[in-house]
């Protein structure tokens, strides 16, 4: 990650902390990062589910509209108005869905060696201090990934909730159109 870290440790006497403490923190941080990544995948999967429901619903509605059973009469003016409302609503919902499922920032659980191990990290330090310095840097990097992905997830959860509300409204309109049309034809 080339950009600035969102979080940096405020530990001043990092040399006094034991290696085992650093390893414990890294273990916990990796578990949390795995959870945040899992949340991100869940949002994407949910977006895909809604998208598939949209495609199925629109396919069914289109099939019905172009079937012989559907005829436009003066009694179906409300149906036509509602159908016209579906178009912009669908476009908006599809744009939200594509934002949810479009490839987003990818955060890997580990760090590449070139970002962990460099000569400045050991300059003027003992072997033990150098190890602690590496571990502290990795802790900061993992926390940074958690922060960035957490922000992204929060934004995507908000988009998901909005998409879900629109989807439920959309499905209600489609059901109303179909029931209204069937009722008017009988």
What is the string of helix and strand elements?
Answer: HHHH
Strand content: under 5%
Compute the number of structural domains: 1
* Counted beta strands: 0
Annotation field: number of helices: 4
Structural class: mainly alpha
Radius of gyration: 27 Å
Binned, the helix content reads over 70%
Describe the sheet with the most strands. none
What best-fitting shape do the alpha-carbon axes yield? Answer: rod-shaped
Q: What is the average of the pLDDT values?
A: 79
Would you give an account of this structure?
The chain is mostly helical. The chain is rod-shaped and about 90 Å long. The chain contains four helices and no strands. The longest helix is centred in the C-terminal third of the chain and has 59 residues, at 127-185. It has helices spanning 19-65, 77-101, 113-116, 127-185.
Features:
186 residues
Short description:
With 186 residues, the protein is mostly helical. It is 73% helix and 0% strand.
Blueprint of the fold:
Layout: H1 19-65, H2 77-101, H3 113-116, H4 127-185
């Amino acid at each position: 990650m080339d950009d600035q870290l969102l979080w940096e440790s405020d530990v001043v006497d990092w040399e006094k902390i034991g290696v085992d403490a650093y390893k414990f923190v890294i273990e916990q941080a990796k578990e949390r990062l795995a959870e945040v990544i899992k949340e991100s995948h869940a949002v994407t999967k949910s977006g895909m589910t809604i998208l598939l429901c949209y495609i199925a619903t629109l396919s069914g509605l289109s099939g019905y509209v172009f079937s012989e059973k559907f005829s436009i009469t003066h009694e179906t003016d409300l149906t036509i108005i509602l159908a016209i409302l579906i178009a912009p609503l669908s476009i908006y919902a599809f744009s939200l869905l594509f934002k949810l499922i479009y490839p987003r920032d990818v955060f890997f659980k580990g760090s590449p060696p070139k970002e962990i191990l460099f000569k400045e990290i050991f300059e003027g330090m003992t072997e033990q201090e150098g190890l602690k310095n590496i571990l502290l840097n990795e802790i900061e990097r993992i926390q940074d990934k958690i922060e960035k992905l957490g922000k992204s997830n929060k934004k995507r959860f908000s988009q998901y909730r909005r998409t879900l509300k629109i989807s439920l409204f959309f499905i209600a309109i489609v059901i109303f159109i179909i029931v209204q049309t069937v009722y008017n034809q009988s």
